[in-house]
Hints:
Metallo-beta-lactamase, Chain A; 7-stranded mixed sheet
Amino acid sequence: MRYKNLTIEKIFHSTVKVEDNLVIYFDPFRLPDGAERADLVLITHEHFDHCSIDDVKKIADENTSIVATEMCKEELKDVNVKEIKYVKPGDKLELRGARIEVVPAYNINKFSSPGVPFHPPEHGKVGYVVELDGARFYHAGDTDNIPEMKNLKNIDVALLPISGIFTMTASEAAEAAKIINPKVAVPIHFADLEFDGKSIGSKEDGENFKKLCQPVAVEII
């Protein structure tokens, strides 16, 4: 999809590529061979489907900057890039002309075992708000509809996980979209992977999200 001067492409799962004069990837995973090189890579947390060193190496070179959480250090230790910035919720930085705000991402009602969230708040997993060419876009990472979303302002494009299990359900994500009130909401993290033999989200979740989001505009890409 096009938004202002930006081209925004969902590639697979949570992998999103944003391009203008920069090429930015969020959570590169299962990239096709020959994928375009990255100027900037942003990784929300250390899980294999978000921090994939094989995929980072497909698109990164000595001119690439990476932003990631501390728990990605071991995975990224041997990658040869210009720089790696390790961040936590609340950090702000500017790289390659993009302004980046690091925001929390965590579960409040999705549990790996009783009382243990898949993504606990104390682990410091993140989402990102990136401002580029006058547009602000938010990649939520793996998260539920959390109170901190009320603090997100002037979001143009919100990339929101909708699959349930590890993240918001479609209905929870639609409620989050109404809180954030972006110009456009884009569902991610659904209908691409399986867990315990079951699909993590479905195409129907995407359509349900679109219906429930009204009056927020939705693009399924």
